[in-house]
Structures are given as structure tokens and as C-alpha cells.
């Protein structure tokens, strides 16, 4: 059975995943408005992924017979100022989320809740994927000039992103 602290931590993480989904959603809409439909499509797909992460936690809490608490999702941060900045913000957010996940892992370890500890390992590995993905994209942009990327380079980056794999 899930303890009160673990239930609260999982609910908080569930809301964090929903928040991440909203962040991707808002950046996707922003990218689309800027004319970058490929990047927008990548970000919309990722918004769905984060929602799936949220559902994964909801299902786990329910499966363990504990209570799911759906609360308000904080508003996403301000829009990025450039495509490069967009992925920098995404990377920072993913690192932040990794730290939040580690806290749940730590807590489940401390409570010797091995089922939750095991459940959380999927998220640990998923964060490795997502941080690497964001880092790779930032590297790609860096090679193409980073903040000073030419419109040609941005154009082809956007085109690539339309069909880019969401996995590393
Ligand atoms: Fe961005 O990943 Fe969820 O956990």
C-alpha cells in the first residue's frame, strides 16, 4: 500500500508531468506562430508524450488503491525569444524534472517502497533520453551558429524536425 508521503509525492509528480505537457504545448503554439511548423509538430508530439507520462502515474496511483488528486496546473513560463532559446528552456526544464523524479526515487528508497522505487526507474531512464535528445538538438543548432543561425539553417532545421524521431 502506498504511504501518505509517497501518494503525495506521486501526485505532485503527476502534476509536474501535466505542467511539462503544457510547457511543450505553449512552445509548440509559439513555434507555429513564428512559422516553424516542423518544430511545432515535434513539440506538439512531445506535449502528448508528457501527458502520457502523467497518465502513467495516475494509473499507478489507482492501481495501488491510493487517491489521485487533480489540482491546478501552473501556467507555462514566458515564450522563448528564439528557437535556440526554446530548446535551452526545454533542456533546463527537463533537468528540473529529472531532479523532481530523483526526489521521488529517494523517498521510495527511504521508505523501502520497492514497488514505487521500481516503477520510478522507467522515469529515470526516460529522463536520460529526454535530456540527451534536447542536448543533441542544441548541439545541432550550435554547429549551425546557435543564436546566429542563418535563416537557411533554421529553415532546414525546421524541415528536419517535422519528421525527427522523438527518441534518441
Ligand atoms: Fe519530459 O519527461 Fe516526463 O517525465
From TrEMBL:
GO CC entries: cytoplasm
Enzyme type, top EC level: oxidoreductase
Species this protein is from: Flavobacterium cellulosilyticum
Annotated EC: 1.16.3.2
UniProt protein name: Ferritin
Compartments in which it is found: Cytoplasm
UniProt entry tagged with the keyword Cytoplasm: yes
Keywords assigned by UniProt, alphabetized: Cytoplasm, Iron, Iron storage, Metal-binding, Oxidoreductase
Binding site for Fe cation: 17, 50, 53, 94, 127
UniProt GO molecular function: ferric iron binding; ferrous iron binding; identical protein binding; oxidoreductase activity
Function: May alleviate iron toxicity in the presence of oxygen. Iron-storage protein.
Domain Ferritin-like diiron: 1-145
Reaction catalysis annotation: 4 Fe(2+) + O2 + 6 H2O = 4 iron(III) oxide-hydroxide + 12 H(+)
A Gene Ontology biological process term: intracellular iron ion homeostasis
Family, similarity comment: Belongs to the ferritin family. Prokaryotic subfamily.
Amino acid at each position: 500500500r502506498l504511504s501518505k508521503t509517497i501518494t503525495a509525492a506521486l501526485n505532485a509528480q503527476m502534476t509536474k508531468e501535466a505542467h511539462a505537457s503544457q510547457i511543450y504545448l505553449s512552445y509548440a503554439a509559439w513555434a507555429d506562430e513564428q512559422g516553424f511548423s516542423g518544430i511545432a509538430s515535434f513539440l506538439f508530439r512531445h506535449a502528448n508524450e508528457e501527458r502520457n507520462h502523467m497518465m502513467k502515474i495516475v494509473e499507478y496511483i489507482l492501481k495501488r488503491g491510493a487517491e489521485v488528486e487533480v489540482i491546478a496546473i501552473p501556467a507555462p513560463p514566458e515564450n522563448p525569444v528564439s528557437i535556440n532559446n526554446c530548446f535551452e528552456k526545454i533542456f533546463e526544464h527537463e533537468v528540473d524534472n529529472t531532479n523532481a523524479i530523483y526526489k521521488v526515487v529517494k523517498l521510495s528508497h527511504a521508505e523501502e517502497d520497492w514497488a514505487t522505487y521500481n516503477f520510478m526507474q522507467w522515469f529515470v531512464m526516460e529522463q536520460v533520453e529526454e535530456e540527451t535528445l534536447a542536448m543533441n538538438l542544441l548541439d545541432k543548432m550550435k554547429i549551425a551558429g546557435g543564436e546566429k543561425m542563418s535563416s537557411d539553417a533554421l529553415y532546414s532545421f525546421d524541415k528536419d524536425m517535422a519528421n525527427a524521431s522523438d527518441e534518441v
